Structures are given as structure tokens and as C-alpha cells.
Please model this.
Amino acid sequence: MDAAKARRELYEAMNEPGEFDAKVDRALELGERFLDVENAHLTEIHPNSDYWETVASTDSDDGEFPPGLVLNLGTTYCRRVAAAGETVALHDAPAQGWDDDPAFDAHELRCYHGSPIVVDDELYGTVCFVSESARSRPFSDEETLFAELIARMLEHELQRQRTAAEIERLDRFASVLAHDLRNPLGVAQGYVDFARRSTDDGNLDTAATALGRMEELIEDVLTMVRQGRTVESAEEVRLPSVAEGCWRSVVTGDAELRVDADLGIRAAPDRLRRLFENLFRNSVEHGGDGVTVRVGALDDGSGFYVADDGPGIPPSERDSVFERGYSSAVEGSGLGLAIVASVARAHDWQISVTDSTDGGTRFEISDVVVLDRVAN
Model:
């Protein structure tokens, strides 16, 4: 199998819809064929307990390295990969001076090619290709590049799985918390409303406003968690129609919206609306009712921007604006820009903040799939 065909088959296998296990099996089979070895494994390394486990394997259930096998990490070549943090390749272990290695003593594998897999900046395990018999020649650069490509693709899938599980966990937690908060909140709002109808006490108006703000905060927390889910399906949307629709749904007072380009992009429409609504609110809250907000295309064609002519964000604060809890407004929840960032991450977009040409704030969203652009 030539390298181009192998890469093409690998890309097709990893991009097909389906379960992770099926993708892993296909990737390992391709690697086994391309590197011309007897077996291929995806392993997980547990450094705290010093053991090694085959998560997936091309070996048979009654073979030496079946799926689910657990070994002492010290008796595997993978410990060398874990220690070095890079690929280890052996085409003939004894000839290369590894005949006294504990892994060779335990399993007598003469051929080994292992690459690390890192998830959340920590070692997850390895992708390794092994044979009992030695190879007549070292692994070529092309073979190593293909094995490492498999490792990177499996890293991406594992990271996606872990992120999805974490978001699901946060979603459940946020939903339960919101439910538990809404019940007593609803009771409190009911009593306050009843009291406001029967007495003329200004303190009750203040209490009602505070309770209403609590309700908004609950909604913001739920939104932030749910907008962070990875976008599974996107469609073509036109920036002007989305931006103008969102502008009408936000309280903007005397502020003005100007859309400087007709841009077609691929996005999840509901998520994109959340992004625009929160950026518009941010401009109006910090720039005042008379602020002018512009939406346009980035000059390099990689995405779009939302800019205003308000007071801007100090350079010293720009690294923290997307963090939960950041707000310079007295009544701000500090979640609006965090929601914007979560929407961008869910689309695999990049978002940054800089100065606008009018002296205010400019949010730039890049790495967007731009379908076409028509300048206004």
C-alpha cells in the first residue's frame, strides 16, 4: 500500500460517522498493513498504578495481546515512549542492543514502533505496532509519519470524547442546580409580587429586581454550559440576516447597527445567534445607548468581526475578558463573553479582542468556514 492511499483511507475512516471503537479498529488495521507488522494496539498507561492496558488491538482474543489485557508497565517497550515523550522505533531489538530490556525478556518482541498519545496535556497511552520477528530494515520516515498521524487522529477522537462527556456532566449538574434554585426562587417571587400588590413599599421593588436578576443568572449559566457542546451539524447562514435579527431581539436603545459585508458562513444558527446577542449586549452595556456597532468581514477572509465605538477594553484586561465572572458593568453577570467564547470553541473558531478603528472594542472571530463574501 502506498503512502497516499494509506492516508486517504485513514482520513475516510476517521471522518465517517460511527462509534469510536470502529474508528480505532480501522486505524489500527491500516497501520498494521502499512508498517507490515503482526499486531497493532491502542494502549492506556496508568502511571500512578504502573500498569499498561490494551484498549483496542488487532490481536485475536486468544492471542498474546488481546483487547483488555493488563500488564506491568515496566515489562513493556511503551514505558520508554512514556519516559521520552516521543516515538520509539525498533526494527531488530537484539541487534540494536535491547536484548537485556525487561520488555524483550517478557515478550521477546523484536519489532516495535510506539508513539505517545496525549489528551488534556497528559499522557494517555500509546499507539504501537509490534512483531515477534525482526524486520530486515529500519522503519522509514514515511512509516513513522503515518504511525504518528494515526496517533494524532486518535488523540483528537479521545479528546472529543472526553470533552463531550465533561460537557454532558456539567449540563446535568447545571440542570439539577437550576431546578433546585428555581423552586425556592419562584416561591420568593410569588410572595414579593403578592406583597407589592397589597403595600406600597419601595424595598419590595428592589427585592423583585434582585430576584429577577437571579433568574437571568440561572439562564446564563445553563446557556454557557449548553452552548459549549461541539457543533455536530452546521449549515449556511448569512451574517446580515442573523446579525440584524439578533439586534432586534436585544434592548439597544439609541444604539445603531451597521453591517459592512454580506458574508456566508457555515455555523449552527442558534449558537451563532447567542454569540451575536451577547456581543451586542456587551457593546450596549459598556458603550451606552448611543454606541455604534459594526459587523463585517475580516480582511484576510478567515471570518468576521463585531466592533463598536465605545470606551474599549484596557489591554491589561483583554486576556481575562472571556473568563467566567469577568464584567466591568455594575449589574453584569460576567457570563456573556464566556458564552461567546464557548460558542466559538464549539465551532472550532478562534476569538480575540483588539481595538476598533473607532477607538472602541473589536472582537475578531477567525478560522470560520467562509462560503462567500459580497461587500456592501
Observations:
- The longest strand covers residues 122-131.
- The two ends are 51 Å apart (CA to CA).
- Confidence is low (pLDDT under 50) at residues 328-333.
